[in-house]
């Protein structure tokens, strides 16, 4: 269920019912009383490592990257968040500060919910508990795959995987080819675990092979099936 940037709190609750299943009025009130909505500009930090994870985040509208500072100040994008995904809550359950940071990739709207209220809802509603258990389990599996892929695949396969990931998360524009997210070359390199110069060279190679077309930050996927083959071959 997709929402736009002007959603009210009640509309967010309706979307949650779509994700979680029926919510008694008392639980809806608990969520509403402990939620506030914030708007962020492109490139704005949502949270940073060492911050205390007191609030869960729900991306309502926009695009967000979760990243970790690496050796020599180089960032590694851990995941990209799509609308109606929760993020920024693992550290709370682990009883530790954030180990990652999050930043908007474009203007975004985010709902903040107090973690204590979330825990209360999880205790009162098994479906919510199961939702987050599945969410964390899937994310752990995804991260395990990403670690192997980013360290063992050839740079062509890593970039192909990144392009497919962006397509799967954010979709395409109305032409059916252009990714609906315009990443900088630095961010694309960070998502693919390579240097910016390697990302630029590999993008150019893909363009020469007619797999993609490049127009500034806009990338058209001309042959998604071949990109999937490159990704699979590693």
What is the CATH fold-level name of the largest domain?
A: Jelly Rolls
Low-confidence stretches: none
CATH class value of the largest domain: Mainly Beta
Instruction: Count all strands and give the number.
Output: 10
The N- to C-terminal Cα distance equals 34 Å
Mean pLDDT: 91
Can you tell me the overall shape? globular
Helix/strand/pairing category: alpha+beta
Q: Could you spell the SSE succession in H and E letters?
A: HHEEEEEEHEEHHHHHEEH
The CATH architecture of the largest domain is: Sandwich
Which percent band covers the strand fraction? 15-25%
Strand order of the largest sheet: 1-8-3-6
The amount of helix comes to: 40-55%
Q: Can you summarize the main beta sheet? A: 4 strands, antiparallel
Descriptive notes:
One of its GO terms (cellular component) is cytosol. The chain is α+β, with helices and mostly antiparallel strands and 234 residues long. The protein has 9 helices and 10 strands. Strand 4 and strand 5 form a beta hairpin. It is globular and about 60 Å long.
List keywords for this structure.
Arc Repressor Mutant, subunit A; transcription; DNA-binding transcription factor activity; Jelly Rolls; 234 residues; Transcriptional regulator, Crp/Fnr family; 4-stranded antiparallel sheet; WH_DNA-bd_sf; 9 helices; DNA-binding; 2 domains; 10 strands
